[in-house]
Design brief:
CATH class of the largest domain: Alpha Beta
Strand content: 15-25%
Distance between the termini: 30 Å
CATH architecture of the largest domain: 3-Layer(aba) Sandwich
Low-confidence stretches: 1-21, 238-251, 253-257
Number of domains: 2
Number of helices: 9
Strand order of the largest sheet: 6-5-7-8-9
Largest sheet: 5 strands, mixed
Mean pLDDT: 83
Helix content: 25-40%
CATH topology of the largest domain: Glutaredoxin
Length: 257
Amino acid sequence: MKIVIHFCLAVACLMSVACSKSFAQANAALEKSQQAGQFTFVVFYRDNTSPTQKMLSVVQQAAASHGERATMTTASMATPEGQALAEQFKVSRAPMPMTVAVAPNGAVTGLFSRQVAKANIDAAIVPPVMMECMKQLQDQKLVFVCLTESDQAAVPAGVRALQLDPLFKDRMALIALNVRSVEEARLMQQLKVDAKQVQGPYAALIAPPGVLVGHFTGTSTAEQIAAAIHKAGKCCDDPNCKHATSTQASSVSTSRR
């Protein structure tokens, strides 16, 4: 473990270079880390206070513990560039300091305001299938997680048929998940699926922002799936839709907060 005073000096250096880092440079850093398959932790701050120092130290140490999988950068809200980056992530009005976790595919996997713990950073580094689900949900897609016991998922016929429906065809994303994957165990728990349930084509549907709509098998029809989506109030983006007030579906937890 490094001596505390050395680590504080490293944090001070981060603070000093952040103000000179432009919006373009910050985006370039994000793009570079994404191309390298790294998770990027962006620490936004307004001033060099004790909470800011503590958040920087926690994030830096936690990111470093993941080796090449994670990196960090900073953005000062005292600069136009930092404000522009905060607007990009929709955190400009959030209490500071704020850490935003960005996955290699651009998904935001964690939002931590005022304080953060190593456990939060660890949880924000999500496995591939979970990462892709979060990205598609943030793109406002209806995510059908097609479960399988092999590397090739069978898509329920009702889901295939729903892809022909003009109301849903451009809003659907199909993602395969091997139910035996130890790495994706957290996602399996959130989908409330027991591997023993998966016998033949099987899909769990999640709707934005993370609502578990239901489970569908090879016998589920497109009409039944559409009815479940309507019942959950996730049939469209119209806030005045008569289905929008439904609270039937449950929420799928993610590492964002």
